[in-house]
Amino acid sequence: MRIKEIREAAGLTRIQVADRLGVTVVAVRKWETGLAMPNADKLPALADLLGCTIDALYGRDRPEQRDAS
Q1: pLDDT of residue 38
Q2: Do 57 and 48 form a contact (C-beta atoms < 8 A)?
Q3: Which of 4, 31, 51, 63 has its Cβ near the most Cβ atoms within 10 Å?
Q4: How far apart are the C-alpha atoms of 50 and 48, rounded to whole Å?
Q5: Rounded to an integer, what distance in angstroms lies between the CA atom of residue 57 and that of residue 50?
Q6: How much is the pLDDT for 5?
Q7: Residue 66, class by beta-carbon neighbours within 10 Å (0-12 exposed, 13-18 middle, 19+ buried)?
Q8: Buried b vs exposed e over 18-42: b needs ≥16 C-beta within 10 Å?
Q9: What's this model's pTM, rounded to 2 decimal places?
Q10: What are the structural domains of the chain?
Q11: Measured between alpha carbons, how far is residue 49 from residues 2, 10, 23, 44 in Å?
């Protein structure tokens, strides 16, 4: 997942993400390091908070971006 990269680009700290999603900072760190994955019910809120799509969190391009390659 690209959570750390996208979070940093959005100018947010792990603490801010954790607070807004109602999870612990440890949970956010685990997501960022690949030790755990966010629960599916958190993904829409996480993507909205970071200003991206759920696919972007997983490092997936949009279909139109893949076709352009």
Answers
A1: 97
A2: no
A3: 31
A4: 5
A5: 9
A6: 96
A7: exposed
A8: beebebeeebbeebbeeeeebeeeb
A9: 0.86
A10: 3-56 (1.10.260.40)
A11: 14, 9, 14, 9
d(CA 57, CA 68): 20
CA distances from 52 to 26, 57, 58, 60 (A): 22, 7, 11, 11
3-state SS of the chain is CCHHHHHHHCCCCHHHHHHHHCCCHHHHHHHHHCCCCCCHHHHHHHHHHHCCCHHHHCCCCCHHHHHHC
Report the pLDDT value the prediction gives residue 9, as an integer from 0 to 100.
97
> Residue 9: how many CB atoms within 10 A of its CB?
12
Nearest to 15 by CA among 48, 7, 51: 7
